[in-house]
Known about the structure:
It contains one helix and ten strands; from the N terminus they run E-E-E-E-E-H-E-E-E-E-E. With 146 residues, the chain is mainly β.
Amino acid sequence: MSIAIKIVNKSHHSLPAYATSGASGMDLRANLELALQLQPMERILIPTGLFLAIPENYEAQVRPRSGLALKQGLTCLNTPGTIDADYRGEIKVILINLSTEIQTIQDGDRIAQLVFCAVEKANLESVIELEITQRGEGGFGHTGKQ
């Protein structure tokens, strides 16, 4: 299944594409005039030069790249970052350097991936109390280590 997404590319990089037939995400590239140095624990908003028109009832999610996280300690904050169907601004990526070393981001570096997802709308129904379940209010590791 595929959906049509309109895109404006104001960068000088090629459009995002799936690297393999089984890939879920398309790589997003940094669109920079100059390289950026990211200090340990520093975060920065990186432009991509891309603008999307996402169909109603869909969203785009910005997610980290596993290799970048493992090899350089760079990951996305606000993950997954949601891009709503009615947003028309530039796609930007919030990166943080979780390593102990300065990391350099060059123009064209693959910094995140973009995944498109269908969105279900919810109709909230106000009630006085919720039905009881076996789990109840248990959360945040209440089942212990397995």
